[in-house]
Design goal:
With 91 residues, this protein is an all-alpha fold. It has helices at residues 2-60, 65-72, 76-90.
């Protein structure tokens, strides 16, 4: 009878050790994913900010929407949305 009890205790310890390691690994993975997401978001935000700044400068130079879209390599719809956002912020 004691042999069975020893096996149950050992398997229980192994199970909990593995579960703890798995949970720790998942937590580390989530944290790493969040960090990578924040870095990616900042990078994308910086790029979008630069593009919006260029669009604003080109609007000030009285360029047409198709000309601006070609300069910043974006669609005309995107340029129109940025111009709307800039105009709304000025009000």
């Amino acid at each position: 009878m004691s042999g069975r009890w020893d096996w149950d205790v050992k398997s229980s310890y192994t199970y909990h050790a593995l579960k703890k390691a798995k949970d720790e690994g998942q937590r580390e993975g989530r944290l790493e994913g969040v960090r990578e997401g924040e870095i990616h978001g900042r990078r994308e935000g910086k790029i979008e900010g630069k593009i919006e700044g260029k669009i604003e400068a080109y609007v000030d130079c009285d360029m047409t929407i198709p000309e601006i879209a070609k300069k910043v390599s974006k669609s005309e719809e995107y340029v129109k949305e940025v111009i709307k956002k800039i105009s709304a912020a000025c009000l």
